[in-house]
Amino acid sequence: MNIKMINQPMQPRVERLSKIIGAPIFESTLWGHEYTLDHLNEMLTAQVKSGHFDKFIFYGMGCSSVVSDIVKGFFITHQIPIDVEVVNDYDTEWFVTDKDLTRDKTLVFIVCYSGWSVEPCLFYERMKRLNGALNLIVLSGGGRIAKMAKNDGNSVIEYRMRHADREYPLYHVQQFFSIFLDLFHKLNILEIDYEDQLRDAVSYLKQKFDSSLIDKAYAMAEKLQGSRIVLLSTSKWYVQLLKQTTMFFNEIAMVPTHRNLLHEFSHTEVAAYSNPVEKQAIIILSDSEDDDYTKNKVATLRKLFGDKSIPQNMNIEFFDIQLNQEDFFQKFYFAHFFMVYVAMFLGQMSNVEGRDLISIAAKNPWWSQESIDEHPLCVDIPGELSESIQKSIEVV
Fold first, then answer.
1. CATH code, 23-198
2. Model confidence over 220-252: pLDDT tens digits?
């Protein structure tokens, strides 16, 4: 599969993505077995398998919260009879109550791939104070939080990925999701493991992403250059797709991008597109199963902003990505990977050099450049880091 290249050196994050995009990254969808249950409490495991829990609460930040959002959307789409809440903020009390966190039939998951994000570690300590971290499972690649949970004798499920990117777990969203599907099947939460559907999806992706489709992604990236971008969809795909897509545009292309619900946007932000002086872009993910009201809403927005004969639209690019595939997996992965291609091409074109902004802003030493240099592999993430690495995230 030929990937278009800009005639200039690529930033390392974009170069690494360009080497795996296509068949290698599609096939990682099938690597849902790369984790270990060695530190999962037997009594808790028996409770989960017996169907004791009727509510799951996921806590995570950044990419770790993306996977939790996908799980929530998947459970709703496939009518899995478990209520799912996702919390990805420091002030958890505004999302879930202590009573909800500690009820007997609530199972809490802390998802933290690096194991070094501050907020999940603080949340773990809070759960210890509330109920001794009863009915809690930590999912991590190691790090501080895994060490804490193991030392306390609490349950840990550890990712053991073969080709983890040292800086961008975003590249492995599809594999994280497959791990959850496999895990939940092993724990009797899902009746099937969905391996057949995933194989079919990979075959579909390999057939669908030909040179013509990749050219469309490239052309879209060309039109997006220099724009501030808003991603829109209905609630269905807002939960499962827009967060990770926004992160790809922000972290990989390093282009200012935000997301909103399609209908909410039409009541609020739409006013800002009256006659913009600077370039703006609207990208909508439209599902063929949307109801008539939603389809009419998209048609209205296309008429309002997609007509270049209207002078006020000269600085607006409008895109409507159609999700008309046969099933959930085809729709999900088509949209995901098409937007990854667009983000990669936009990253090549913008060619912005990164800084240690996330590691410093989030106070996560594992993603700092010094830590990357000292620990170049993202496997067996240590539970302790050197003092110099800890200080590398401090703002002087």
1. 3.40.50.10490
2. 999 999 999 999 999 999 989 999 999 999 999
